[in-house]
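Table S2 (continued). Query chain:
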Amino acid sequence: MPLTPSLSLRAGLLLGALRTVWMAVEHLAGIRTTHLDWVEGSYGLFLLVGAPLLWAVLLAPVQRGPSPLALRDLMVTGLGAGVISGLIHVAVFWTYTEFLHPEFLDAFIAWNAENSSNTLEIAEREFRLPAFLDILFVHPLLFNPLTAVALGGILAKRAK
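Corresponding output:
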């Protein structure tokens, strides 16, 4: 298990960096300015494609090596990475919505209230911090251990 802390740290920092770059690309592509209807789809793409690809790149050499990580080690590694990347995501989101593009959150909340069953009041409560921590922090905290375990198991089986 000596590899787990360094892999957790590396994965968490890289996942946080990937999410930061992803948000910057969303902004530059107009997803966070003009095409607010693409925000949720882009986040889903990050969770279901971007993050797992990064995990695959990080875990492939480890799981093919002489001592692949066991299920428990993969879970701990994913949990550590989830904490680190979640904290980075919260910090980047806060910085983005408070300083870099403060109009985004107001526009997204108004769009959400118009295009969902949410009222403006409910959307306000749902997408403002601290209530929005369920997406920003809890998603990485839950998703990364599951991804690490699933991909780690698949990669270890393929290496045999």
